[in-house]
From TrEMBL:
<feature type="domain" description="N-acetyltransferase">
    <location>
        <begin position="1"/>
        <end position="158"/>
    </location>
</feature>
<feature type="region of interest" description="Disordered">
    <location>
        <begin position="151"/>
        <end position="174"/>
    </location>
</feature>
<dbReference type="InterPro" id="IPR000182">
    <property type="entry name" value="GNAT_dom"/>
</dbReference>
<dbReference type="GO" id="GO:0016747">
    <property type="term" value="F:acyltransferase activity, transferring groups other than amino-acyl groups"/>
</dbReference>
<dbReference type="Pfam" id="PF00583">
    <property type="entry name" value="Acetyltransf_1"/>
</dbReference>
<dbReference type="InterPro" id="IPR016181">
    <property type="entry name" value="Acyl_CoA_acyltransferase"/>
</dbReference>
<keyword id="KW-0808">Transferase</keyword>
<protein>
    <submittedName>
        <fullName>Acetyltransferase (GNAT) domain-containing protein</fullName>
    </submittedName>
</protein>
């Protein structure tokens, strides 16, 4: 087995997607995740732009494992942002599991994040993922997700102005990130707006931002996802999420992942909009309490 850095190239991005897809679509077994759950999946990392972005910004945190024939059999993607380490993906082909591939990849990403006081990952609901994150020193906080079709008629109007965001809001978002997760995302806020809609709010009481992305969805069709949300108060977070669900539109399918017990404000907004809650995995944290008010991203936790 050979470990090498993921490169900012199309063929490496496709190799990442190959491994992630194989892990996602693997048949269930006693030691493998069921269909739809890779060991540490993030749908966004299956898109070519995400691994290429992290290969540029964090080559030391992104690794491919290849067999003797040069075929990719495992991948890990992670990032460091001002002392906060984030784990985006750790996946191994079903036929390569049990051979130390995952352990070797995990060791590399933990070495990359060794100097970071804080760590975070969005963890899917499977024992394999739980074991991986506990080995990485993360505390597991049970999470809820909200899904369903939005009823805009039952949503109140936002209690203040919410505007379309842009490059000029970078300092605002970095400030919110430092307050919530101990480190600004920096270059991630250059990448995310290329693929997701950005909403921001800013007034005398504080500020916040929210990304919305359109996904192909599953058998029930396309959906809008709250990709990431952070604010300096629950009131502003409620305003942003209310505006985001209104922007999604009447009857559109929406998904919101990674809500810890601290995000009751988000449950209130989602339930008012007709979304349904269920339990879904964990938010893994190291050296920090669950950020709030906050909705994490699987690809950019």
């Amino acid at each position: 087995m050979l470990l090498r850095p993921v490169r900012d190239r199309e063929d490496d991005a496709q190799a990442v997607r190959f491994v992630a897809d194989a892990a996602l679509l693997a048949p269930p077994s006693a030691c493998a995740p069921p269909p739809g759950h890779a060991p540490l999946p993030a749908e966004a990392v299956r898109r070519p732009h995400h691994p290429r972005h992290l290969a540029r910004t964090d080559p030391g945190g992104c690794w491919l494992a290849e067999d003797a024939a040069g075929r990719p059999v495992g991948v890990v993607l992670s990032a460091r942002r001002e002392g906060t380490w984030g784990l985006s993906l750790l996946a191994v082909l079903p036929e390569a599991r049990g051979r130390g591939v995952g352990g070797a990849l995990l060791k590399r990403t933990l070495e990359y994040g060794r100097g970071c006081l804080r760590g975070i990952a969005l963890v899917p609901p499977h024992p394999v993922a739980a074991r991986v994150c506990r080995r990485a020193g993360l505390e597991l906080h049970p999470a809820t997700r909200l899904t369903g079709r939005v009823s805009t008629a039952s949503l109140p109007a936002p209690d203040g102005a919410v505007a379309e965001g842009g490059p000029g809001d970078r300092d605002l978002m970095d400030s919110v990130d430092r307050r919530l997760r101990g480190g600004a995302r920096g270059p991630d806020h250059e990448e995310l707006p290329r693929h997701a809609r950005l909403l921001v709010t800013d007034d005398f009481a504080g500020s916040g931002y929210c990304y919305l992305s359109a996904r192909s969805g599953g058998p029930e069709g396309p959906e809008v996802r709250v990709e990431l949300l952070g604010a300096t108060s629950r009131r502003l977070a409620t305003r942003l999420l209310t505006a985001a669900l209104g922007a999604a539109g009447e009857g559109r399918r929406v998904r919101i992942e990674g809500l810890t017990a601290e995000q009751q404000w988000a449950l209130d907004v989602g339930l008012a909009a007709g979304l349904e809650p269920d339990t879904a995995g964990w938010v893994g944290l190291r050296g920090m309490r669950p950020p709030s008010p906050y909705v994490p991203s699987a690809a950019f936790p």
